[in-house]
Specification:
heterodimer; A: mainly alpha; Cytochrome Bc1 Complex, Chain D, domain 2; 32% helix; 0% strand; globular; B: 246 residues; mainly alpha; 11 helices; 5 strands
Chain lengths: 139, 246
């Protein structure tokens, strides 16, 4: 399954990103045809693909070491809507240009990106939905 | 106006804190113990190299510079440095390689080779305990400004600059690691993660990798300029070579 996901990612390495519309501080519409899978989202946030725990603590994961550069995400699903979470993951710089939060679904406006990552978003559209789905479970 | 901002940028922190102050007690103890500090192995190798004839000249470092504890004392506090006569900005590694080619008639050592690391560690070690003393002047101002620009430039897929971690978030945790202010005053260091001594440029390249940016070569002008800017931020911190870090 991981292999299939990686193969699919490689094939879809260069096409344009799924377009999205920002309304207020949210992206209401899902970026992917399939609904987000919270279990895959849980794997992503502690894994190397998204690496959220590098900066954010999520007590619900039970992970021993977590960062404290950014706010803890416990209960975030009760504080933010799905659409608000989606925009904050896709491109937090739209809300705060000075943020240290990377944009997880953006390829333009970046400089000197390493060849292995050039032209690719950090996460795929489906992975964004998986992370959103997991964060919505944190209530 | 320009002068003002440049002057302000040269002294952004009145009291810099060395990375060792952010380290755990085990790492501190290891650095403080010259018999336990693994970096001392490189210093000892460097002392041998200092006295070993090299190249067509068959001269050793000691043939000209004699007793390193006397003649190299304080040298590392003034590097990277550019000769008054011009030429490029050189860090200690660059100066050693220049000496090998021009004075010894030897080949340069590859960056990160055991030889270059060892001799650099030996030379820097002669300044241990002395404060970093980089001055910004007409000879190095262009390099300083380039280094500062790099420090504040967002880059890579993570779109982060040095400042975002090492200035704005020093002292906070990145997973299990405490982020330091990113000073170079202990390099070359023995890093537990590497199980080896390594250069500042190796460490800087690791940060470029972390933000998923193109990595400049070790010894490149970009990294030497950045090293100069870092040294200016570290002014007043004591040289710790060989430092120990996680």
């Amino acid at each position: 399954m991981l292999f299939a996901a990686m193969a699919g990612y490689a094939v879809a390495a260069t096409p344009a990103l799924v377009p999205y519309r920002i309304e207020g501080d949210a992206i209401q519409a899902s970026l992917a045809p399939d609904p987000g899978d919270p279990l895959r989202g849980r794997e992503l946030i502690s894994g190397r693909d998204a690496n959220c725990l590098l900066c954010h603590a999520v007590a619900e994961t039970g992970v021993r070491f977590m960062g404290d550069i950014a706010p803890p995400l416990s209960g975030i699903g009760a504080r933010l809507s799905e659409g608000q979470l989606r925009l904050r993951i896709v491109d937090s710089s739209r809300l705060n240009p000075e943020t240290v939060m990377p944009s997880y679904y953006k390829v333009d406006g970046l400089v000197r990106v390493a060849p292995a990552w050039r032209g690719k978003p950090v996460l795929t559209a489906q992975q964004i939905e998986d992370v959103v789905a997991y964060l919505k479970t944190l209530k | 106006m320009l002068t003002l901002s440049a002057a302000a940028a040269e002294a952004p922190r009145p009291q810099p804190k060395s990375g060792i102050e952010y380290a755990g007690s085990d790492v501190r103890a290891l650095q403080a113990d010259d018999f336990g500090n693994p970096g001392m192995l490189w210093v000892a190798r460097g002392e041998k190299l200092w006295n070993a004839p090299a190249g067509r000249s068959e001269k050793s470092c000691a043939s000209c510079h004699r007793d390193a504890p006397a003649t190299m004392k304080g040298v590392a506090t003034r590097y990277p440095r550019r000769d008054a006569g011009g030429g490029e900005l050189l860090n200690l590694e660059g100066r050693i390689n220049q000496c090998r080619v021009q004075q010894q008639g030897a080949e340069t050592w590859r960056y990160e080779s055991e030889e270059l690391l060892s001799l650099t560690a030996y030379v820097a070690h002669q300044s241990r305990g002395m404060p970093v003393n980089i001055g910004i002047n007409e000879a190095n101002r262009v390099n300083f400004e380039r280094g500062r620009d790099i420090y504040y430039r967002r880059q890579g897929q993570m779109n982060l600059a040095c400042t975002h971690c090492h200035e704005q978030n020093a002292g906070r945790k990145l997973l299990a690691d405490t982020i330091s202010e990113g000073h170079g005053n202990a390099y070359p260091v023995y890093r537990l993660e590497w199980q080896s001594a390594g250069s500042l440029h190796r460490r800087l390249r690791a940060c470029y990798f972390g933000v998923r940016a193109e990595q400049p070569a070790a010894g490149s002008a970009e990294l030497v300029d950045l090293e100069l800017y870092l040294a200016s931020r570290a002014r007043g911190l004591r040289v710790e070579t060989p430092g120990v870090r996680r």
